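Rotation project, supervised by the postdoc (A.L.). Task for the rotation student: set up a whole-complex structure prediction and record inputs and outputs verbatim in this book. Inputs entered:
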Amino acid sequence: MINRMQLLFSAVPENESLARTAVSAFMLPYNPTLEILSDVKTAVSEAVTNSIIHGYPGQQGEIRLEANCDEEGLLTLEIADQGVGIRDIPQAMEPFYSSDPYSERSGMGFTVMQSFMDALAVTSSPDHGTTVRMQKRIVLPQERPAKRA
Amino acid sequence: MLKLERNDHTLTARLDGEIDHHHVLFLRAALDRVLNDCRATALIFDLSRVDFMDSSGIGLLIGRYKQMQSRGGQTYISASNVQVDRLLHLSGIDSLIRRIDPPAERSAR
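Outputs recorded:
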């Protein structure tokens, strides 16, 4: 069975922790290691913060978070906004690139997502928003229960 | 969330809980207020009670490091958990800000 979750929330800083906590609660039944749990929480935090700061600069909006986990323990997350979008995705993904050098942002959001997850894909179109899709195996192969004959 | 201790010219900022963009907004304002009115020549970030940190926290650390540097001061980081450590390492902050052993707390909590 594939387990699914969807969450729609306002793009406000208070909800960064909500998003992390929800994903972490979704993962708990799979018994992930603490390291895997914190990797995913960090990646979620980065994606949601990007949407709040860069997707909706000075404007209101909503963020949709979708999670699913298959029988093999592969977690897929999608974090989508309908904000201003990213004009140059490769540039935005460069380590230490920040669209606003005076804001004291570290420019590491995508680097963190890339390093802490197994796969990352970003789709975006100007004025239509950005979707970040990330995957990570949260159940290690040897821990998977043997299938019944 | 933030406890500040001053000892001669050393300012120790003990952070706890979760450091994300939301909390950084508050932490930055609180830290800058104190840094502006004191003449600390050393700033120690004690991260031993931080359970979670994302790259917003890295931005906070680098920003304060630059501020200290511009007045000829030093910045240090003491103790952090595994998750925070991996992030510090990934950001390369390790090569900018020196690690020291956790300072003892001056008064009982």
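Student's summary: The two ends of chain B are 14 Å apart (CA to CA).
Supervisor addendum: The interface with chain A takes residues 18, 20-22, 25, 28, 52, 54-56, 58-60, 62-63, 82-83, 87, 90-91 of chain B (CB under 8 Å).
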